[in-house]
Write the structure tokens for this entry.
Amino acid sequence: MKIDILTLFPEMFTPLEHSIVGKAREKGLLDIHYHNFRDYAEKARHVDDEPYGGGQGMLLRAQPIFDAFDAIEKKNPRVILLDPAGKQFDQAYAEDLAQEEELIFICGHYEGYDERIKTLVTDEISLGDYVLTGGELAAMTMIDATVRLIPEVIGKEASHQDDSFSSGLLEYPQYTRPYDYRGMLVPDVLMSGHHENIRQWRLYESLKKTYQRRPDLLEEYELTAEEEKMLAEIKENNNHEKS
């Protein structure tokens, strides 16, 4: 995958040189390039200006963004504008991006963008209902979530298939050695070696966590007959605990 990032602060992206993303770059699975669009500003390196019609704050000018974009070697990229008003980023979107060969991220700053910049983009995306000082942190988050889904980046594909949100549910609890730590024991079912019982326990616990912490996820989730039965039991047990 090739990723190009248009930003005023390329130095902010040093975290992408480490951990899983850094290893993907070392393996040649990922190629990242940074483009400081201030270098393309024609007017004394000014990338922002006052909005026509008045108002608070400054807007990013179209010219530096367009010229930086034109300078990128590209074929058919997915172009992502980091914008608080955009569609909210989620796991399904990360999985979608992971199928692409070329991504371009445009990181905003100041009050907003000249609207004409949006003619370059295919996607307007936000991390959530809050405002950051710039798009750099949002871009890093999206890149990290996306790159780890590229085949061969993580050793075993199954290692991310059970992640929270990948299945539509939150991930079940997990344990490792020792069995007994300060009196807290690993659930016996996980020590049983009975694969079907372990699968059922994990599914039940995943449904339980989702129901208790993110019930909104269940509104869009298509339950199997097995899951419907488990969820009914979870709700009944939850009601008993409250009474």
Q: What stands out?
A: Helices lie at 19-26, 62-71, 91-97, 136-147, 158-161, 188-191, 195-213, 225-242. Residues 61 and 114 are 6 Å apart (CA to CA).
